[in-house]
Amino acid sequence: MVAGRYAIEAKGLTKIYGRARGITDVDLAVPEGDFLGFIGPNGAGKSTTIRILLGLIAPTGGTAKIFGEDIRGKRTELLARIGYMPSEANFYRGMKAGEVLEYSAGLRKRDCREEASRLCRRLELDVNKRVDQLSLGNRKKVSIVCALQHAPDLCILDEPTSGLDPLIQREFYRILEERNRAGTTIFLSSHVLSEIQKYCKHAAVIKEGRILACDSIEALGHTNAKEVTLTGIAAPPVLEGMRNIRAEGNTVRFLYSGDLRKLMSALARLPVEDVNITEPDLEEIFMHYYKEEANDNIKA
Amino acid sequence: MTILRHEIRQGRIPLMIWTAAIAFLLGTCVLIYPEMAKQMGELSQAFGNMGGFSAAFGMDRINFGEFTGFFGVECGNILGLGGAFFAALLGISALSKEEKEHTAEFLLTHPVSRRRVLTQKLIAVLVQITVLNGAAVAVTALTALFVGESPDRKLLGLMFLAYFIMQIETAAVCFGISAFLGSGGPGLGLGLAAVFYFLNIVANLTEKAGFLKYITPFGYTDGADITANGRIEPEYLGVGLAVTFVGIAAGFWKYGKKDLT
Predict the structure, then answer these.
(1) Around Cβ B39, how many Cβ atoms within 10 Å?
(2) CA–CA dist A15, A27 (Å, integer)
(3) Which residue in A55, A115, A114 sits closest to A82, CA to CA?
(4) Strands, sheet with A242-248, edge to edge from the N-terminal-most edge strand
C-alpha cells in the first residue's frame, strides 16, 4: 500500500436518469486502508454511487477513480482488486452455494477454495444447498464469501447485514475488522447507524443524491449540536437552534445548536430536576443533518 | 472459458429437451417414409396440385416420392421451425436473462470485460445450436440407414447446412435484440421466429411477395429450391449472413455501453 493514496476518489460524480434524480456532484475520497460507512436512507443515491464506482453504470458527469485509475478505463483490472457485495443476493437458479463460489473464483481465475472454506466455516454456510432454496440470510452469506474469498484490496459492501442474524453479523464485522487491519479498504453502505458508529473510522452522509457530510466518526460527533435531555418537565423551552424534539412523560430530549448561555438561562426558569448535555450519537447527527437540510430547503 | 462452461451447464436441460423432441420427430418422420413412399404415386400428384397450399410449402416443385423431396418438406418443417424456435429462445435470453434474474450485477462486478461475456455467451449459443443440429443429422442418418434409404448426400447436406445457418441467423438477430431488452423476451423471440417462418410461406404463395425471402432466413432453407437448384440460393444467403453480422454487432455495441441497474 502506498501511504496517502486513495482507494476511492469521486469528483463531481453526477448521474441523471431521464427526469429522475440519481446523484449530484458527489465528491468522495476514501484513503487506502480506511473503513468508511456510507449512510443514507433508501433512495438517497448510495447504490447509484456504488454502481458507478463498479463501472456498472456510466456517470452523466464527473470522475470515479479506484486506486488512482478511472474505473471506465481500467474496469477489468480494477475489479480484480475489488470484492463487491450487492444489497440483494441473487444467483443463478439451480446452482449450489459451493458452485456459485467456484464460479465466482473461476471468473477471477483464482483458486480460492482454502479461503472460501475458512469463511464458510466462520459464517456457518452450507455449500451443498441450492441457492434458490436458501433463506435471505444464507444467500447473503454466499454473497459475503464471493466478495471476500479472493482477499480483495477494496471491499464495497451494499447493505451487507440485512437478513443476517445478530451472531453472524458480529462474526461478519470481525472478519471485516481483521481484513481492515491487514490493509483492506472497506466501503460499506448502510442505514444501520449503530453499525457504522461501532465499526467505521469515517462516514459519509448522503441525502437526495448529494453528500451532506464526510468526516471521521469522532469529528462528525463534534458537531455544534448537543443532545440535551431534561427531566422534570413535559414541554421544552422555546429557543432558536432546537431540533428533533421528543417528549416522553416528564423527560424531554432535543438537539441544540444555539447559544448555550440562552439555554442555561431558559433552564433556570424551569422546574428541571436533571439536565444531561452530551455529544449526540451518530443517529442524532444523522437526524441533525437531515433536519438541517430540510430546514435550509424550507428557508430557501 | 468459465462463462462458456457456465452457460452450457445452465442451458443443458432445455438443450436436451429440444434436441430429444426434434430428433424424435425427425426420426419418426424418416421411419414412416417407406410407408409413405408406397402411396406416393397418387399422393405426390395430389400434393403438387393443391394450388396455393402446395406452393406455400414448395410441394409443387419437388418430388414427394423421393427421399430428399419428402425430407425437404416434412422433415424440413420440423428441424426448420423447431430449430428456429430453439435458436430464438437461446438468442433472446442470452443477455436479457441476466437482467431479468438480477444476475448481471453478480457477473459484471467480476473482472470480466463485457466483450468477453458477450463472446462466450455467443459461443455458448453456437455450441448449443451445433449440438442440436448434430443430433438431427445423426438421427436422420441412422434412421435412413435403418429403413434402407440412401439419399443424395449433397442435397441433404445442403438442407442441413441451410437450417443450421438459418438458426444461427435467428439467434443472432435475437441476441442483438436481447441487448436492448431490460428483461425477459422469450415471447418476442418465439414470435419473431414464427413471423420469419410465415413470411417464407407468404413469399411462396405469390411472386409479388417474393422479396420477403430476402427478409426471412427461411428464404434460403426452402427444400424445393435447394433440391431443384442443387445449392443454397446465394442472394438470400448473402443477406442472411449480413443480417447475422448486424445482429451480433448490435448486441456488442449496445451491451458494451449499457447501464446495468
Answers:
(1) 11
(2) 13
(3) A55
(4) A242-248, A251-256, A226-231, A274-278
Q: How far is CA B88 from the centre of its chain?
A: 8
CA–CA distance, A60 with B258 (Å, rounded to integer): 13
- A21-56, pLDDT tens digit by residue? 789 999 999 999 999 999 888 888 999 999 999 999
| CA distance to partner chain A, nearest, from residue B32 (Å) | 39
Task: Say if the Cβ atoms of A82 and B109 lie within 8 Å.
Answer: yes
Residue A154 three-state SS: strand
B97: nearest CA partner in chain A = A92
Size of interface A-B (CB pairs under 8 A): 61
Judged by CB atoms closer than 8 Å, whether chains meet at A92 and B101 is answered as yes
Which 108-167 residues of chain B touch chain A by CB within 8 A? 108-113
Phi, psi angles (nearest 5°) of residue B157 = -60, -40
pLDDT per residue rounded down to tens, chain A (300 residues): 444 699 999 999 999 988 777 899 999 999 999 999 998 888 889 999 999 999 999 999 999 999 999 998 899 999 999 999 998 889 998 999 999 999 999 999 999 999 999 999 999 999 999 999 999 999 999 999 999 999 999 999 999 998 899 999 999 999 999 999 999 999 999 877 788 888 999 999 898 899 988 888 877 766 667 888 999 988 888 888 887 788 888 899 888 888 888 999 998 888 899 999 887 766 666 766 666 555 554 444
Residue with cell 448555550: A260
Residues B37-79 pLDDT 10s: 777 666 666 666 666 666 666 666 666 677 888 888 788 889 9
Q: Which residues of chain A does B111 touch, with a Cβ-Cβ cutoff of 8 Å?
A: 76-80, 107-108
pTM: 0.83
Could you tell me if A252 and A166 are in contact, meaning their C-beta atoms sit under 8 angstroms apart? Answer: no
Residue A261 distance to chain B (closest CA, Å): 52
Q: Which of A75, A91, A109 sits opposite B103 (nearest CB)?
A: A91
Best of B6, B12, B101, B109 to mutate (most A CBs within 10 Å, chain A): B109
What residue ranges do the domains of chain B occupy?
2-256
CB–CB contact A56 B103 (8 Å):
no
Nearest CA distance, A167 vs chain B (angstrom): 26
In A121-166, at which residue ranges do the beta strands (DSSP E only) sit? 154-158
Strand duo A274-278 + A251-256: pairing: unpaired
Is B106 part of the contact surface with chain A (CB cutoff 8 Å)?
yes
Pairing of strands A35-39, A202-207: parallel
CA distance to partner chain B, nearest, from residue A100 (Å): 10
Does A79 sit within 8 Å of B259, measured CB to CB?
no
Rg (C-alpha) for chain A, rounded Å, is 22
Of A55, A58, A91, nearest to B106 by CB-CB distance is A91
Rounded mean pLDDT of B209-234?
Answer: 88
Q: For strand A242-248 and strand A202-207, is the pairing parallel, antiparallel, or unpaired?
A: unpaired
